[in-house]
Design brief:
Layout: H1 2-8, H2 15-18, H3 24-35, E1 40-41, H4 46-52, E2 65-67, H5 72-82, E3 91-94, E4 111-114, E5 121-124, E6 129-132, H6 138-145, E7 150-151, H7 174-177, E8 184-190, E9 196-200, H8 205-211, E10 220-227, E11 229-230, E12 235-241, H9 246-259, E13 265-273, E14 279-286, H10 297-300, E15 306-309, H11 315-321, E16 332-335, E17 338-340, H12 345-364, E18 369-376, E19 400-408, H13 414-434, H14 455-459, H15 463-473
Helix pairs in contact: 3-5, 6-11, 12-13
């Protein structure tokens, strides 16, 4: 991280010089510096470097400035400045995590809004809700909730920001309680015109619907209030298998995907290709007690190269183990989603073939691939708790969001990697369709989807309704100045 900061310090922009510049972003930064002088940062400062940093370096962009609001009033000021008719500056909103892999979705060449300072967390025992600021990551949230023996439906790996729920929000307790969007009680937010509102089903029902999956199209969230759930001691493990166990792991995954009926048992697996012998990593979660459930025994009958098992029963200890990708700050990467109902042996065999084929093709083309992988996510009744949401997830169509991903090191290989990821994803879905485990019309999980995914595959029949809500809330299209899937 220190090296990353030092490399950015080579470019220093004097705030006093900004006022003489003419581009919209430079004008916005000048006005913001005047309005919020101690909260605006420029290239060369460590605060700026932290504000624009993303989990995958390819998602970071060198913004003209960054701004760290500390109050709702600050957020209102920022929105009024970037959206002014004589400014109209590009901007991006980043919560604490920075895990969006699509460049420009939470990064920008304009004004980077970093919600770092919104770190309050409050548990209301009477209402059974937890209010969370967007400056927290999910592992920080769980650490605070662990002593209270409660949890919320949030992210599954360390470092992911709480803004995850705006795109759906799959969780380790999704089998039991649904997606993050199904657990939102209210959202405190600043609208594109700078007005602060609290959005709930009984106060702003259309906007409440739109925010549940609609990402950054309607304003900036300053507080998330979610349902609280009792969380007793849990059991969890992370196990790695060598390439020689590929067939055995695939069979165990297929059996679990098709046959599991234990609602508190969830797992996520990834085959990761980094060379000629791709292995598997499997993360196991059981939502009660400190003993492994019998449903996982077939996996533990397979010889493993390593295994880490939660010993304390702590959700926080489990989350600390639950990472698939090494968080290398120099890595570039893109992810995507393929909707799949069940991971049968033929589907998993085909995934294995495509991962290897994509890796070998990249190497043959002298591309700097560092990994090609796919996350397998066999949920059980994940949509049983579905609420009306922009991201429609009907119990009648219980697809799961498998997660193809490519990482590389040379920036010149970005376009190739994007095309390779799209090609691999399309081939996998085409095969899953042939196997009866996907449909061409299945919706794609917004948090994983590649940037060229059309709106109808994200929101289906909701697209026109969302566009109407967007126009009503944001008639001047201020949020159109931010990147992402735009309505």
């Amino acid at each position: 991280m220190k090296t990353f900061f030092l490399s950015l310090s080579l470019l220093i922009l004097n705030p006093a010089a900004v006022s003489g510049l003419t581009t919209s972003a430079q004008k916005a930064c000048s006005l913001l510096h005047a309005a919020l002088p101690k909260k605006v940062f420029f290239p060369g400062s460590q605060r700026y470097a932290a504000d624009i940093f993303h989990f995958q370096l390819s998602s970071s962009q060198n913004s003209t400035c960054s701004v760290e609001p500390t109050t709702v009033s600050d957020v209102s000021t920022i929105m009024k400045i970037v959206g002014r008719d004589n400014v109209r500056s590009p901007f991006a909103i980043k919560s604490s995590g920075g895990h969006a892999t699509n460049p420009g979705f939470s990064s920008t060449l304009g004004v980077q809004i970093a919600m770092t300072n919104f770190t309050d967390l409050t548990y209301d025992a009477a209402k059974q809700t937890v209010s969370i600021g967007p400056g927290l990551t999910w592992d920080q949230v769980y650490k605070q909730l662990d002593p209270l023996n409660i949890t919320v439906v949030g992210g599954r790996v360390p470092g992911v920001g709480v803004g995850l729920v705006l795109g759906g929000g799959y969780s380790w307790v999704t089998n039991q309680y649904g997606l993050g969007v199904d657990n939102i009680v209210s959202l405190d937010m600043v609208l594109p015109n700078g007005t602060a509102v609290q959005v709930a089903e009984n106060s702003h029902p259309d906007l409440f619907f739109a925010m549940k999956g609609g990402l950054n199209n309607f304003g900036i969230v300053t507080k998330f209030t979610l349902k609280a759930h009792s969380q007793p001691s849990i059991w969890g493990a992370v196990v790695n298998y060598g390439a020689e166990q590929n067939a055995a792991v695939i069979q165990a995954l297929a059996d679990f995907s098709v046959n599991n009926t234990e609602i508190k048992a969830q797992l996520a697996a990834a085959q990761v290709v980094t060379g000629p012998a791709p292995g598997w990593e499997v993360i196991f979660f059981y939502g009660q007690g400190n003993q492994m459930p019998a449903v996982y025994q077939p996996f533990f009958d397979i010889p493993a190269t390593s295994a880490s098992i939660v010993t304390s029963g702590s959700f926080s200890e489990f989350i600390a183990l639950s990472t698939v990708l090494n968080p290398d700050p120099t890595a570039k990467g893109l992810s995507n989603v393929v909707p799949i109902v069940h991971y049968t042996v033929p589907v998993l065999d085909f995934i294995h073939e495509q991962l290897n084929a994509t890796w070998l093709a990249g190497k043959a083309a002298n591309k700097s691939f560092t990994s090609v992988l796919l996350g397998v996510e066999p949920f059980l009744d994940a949509f049983a708790h579905a609420t009306p949401s922009a991201y429609e997830h009907s119990v009648a169509r219980p697809v799961t969001p498998s997660n193809p991903w490519i990482t590389w090191s040379d920036p010149a290989d970005t376009a190739y990697a994007h095309a390779a990821l799209r090609n691999m994803s399309d081939k996998i879905q085409a095969f899953a369709i042939q196997q009866g485990q996907s449909l061409a019309t299945d919706l794609h999980y917004p948090n994983y989807a590649l940037d060229d995914t059309p709106l109808n595959l994200l929101y289906g029949k909701n697209v026109q309704k969302l566009k109407a809500i967007k126009h009503a809330v944001d008639p001047k299209n201020v949020m159109g100045l931010a990147g992402g899937f735009k309505l």
